[in-house]
């Protein structure tokens, strides 16, 4: 009888581990309509790889370093051409080209998310205090002075001095700093990116400035290695 | 269709009938230039700004158009110090902006160097 209990207990405990896995979660509002003229539901990591070669409904013209014009209509082609020194044909479109490159990379990152064993980011909330716990690389860095300060800073707040937060929804908030910086931070997904069993967060940051045309976009993968610890930067792209 | 950073402005053309007249566009450009000039005089001083060579003024117009007055004042302190000291060669070393098109950064740098 005792021998019978052992396999039953083992299978019960394995079952318990399996059910306690934390599945990746993805933001509902994604940018797919800007690429394909319709919203595509992206609820699982396996939805993302096909976007790499899916044809956009609106093509771009990029200019090669030799001045040759070429059309681009997939993430795969865009990434390859930018790597080879291509730029937007119209200067005014460079910001959109950069944003698309970032979104394509974001999809690649999100395709790698797997389930986690433990999470210290589930309680994440946007707030005025968040910049104190986030890595300094999240700051808006434009000048050489910004770059020099980044080398010494411990967190985003030390770089930016955020004075106001304006929530757009639960996942998306605009952070205003004390020197004209406007940063829209969006939590795109949660899941295990680096296969260490700990849940990570994928963030999208859109930067602009008060009264200027400047714009940039960045993606980040951050995590917390223990509860209440500052966030650690795993990847910036 | 809604506004998204991944969307080109011209993608909205098929949904819109709005057309701006050439004269209105020219007026808008002039208004912007006048405002930027006022702001640059605030940053560097009226007399000082007027004394800068034209190529330096062009570089400064690009900087303020791109960065806005607040960012230019607060996050480019070294650049501003060199401009105020009329050391345009040293300012050229500080004018580069992250994520701005390389040609545009070169245009500003060359203007400061008088090339």
Structure explained in plain terms:
The complex is a heterodimer of chains A (237) and B (115). With 237 residues, chain A is of the alpha+beta class. Chain A has two domains: 32-111, no CATH class; 130-236, no CATH class. Chain A contains seven helices and ten strands. In chain A, the strands form two sheets. In chain A, strands 1, 5, 6, 7, 8, 9 and 10 form a seven-stranded antiparallel beta sheet that branches. Chain A has a three-stranded antiparallel beta sheet with strand order 3-2-4, with helices on one face. In chain A, β5 and β6 form a beta hairpin. In chain A, α3 crosses α4 (94-111). The longest helix of chain A is centred in the first third of the chain and has 18 residues, at 2-19. Chain A is globular and about 50 Å long. Chain B is mostly helical and 115 residues long. Chain B has one domain. In chain B, 65% of the residues lie in helices and 0% in strands. Chain B has six helices and no strands. Chain B has helices spanning 22-44, 46-51, 54-75, 77-84, 88-92, 102-112. In chain B, α1 (22-44) crosses α3 (54-75) and α3 (54-75) packs across α6 (102-112). Chain B is globular and about 50 Å long. Chain B starts with 21 loop residues before the first helix and ends with a helix.
Which characteristics define this entry?
heterodimer; A: 237 residues; alpha+beta; 2 domains; 7-stranded antiparallel sheet; 28% helix; globular; B: 115 residues; mainly alpha; 65% helix; 0% strand
If you average the pLDDT of chain A, what whole number results? 91
Number of E-state strands of chain B = 0
Which two chains form the greatest contact, residue counts included? A-B, 39 and 35 residues
Main beta sheet of chain A: strand number and arrangement?
7 strands, antiparallel
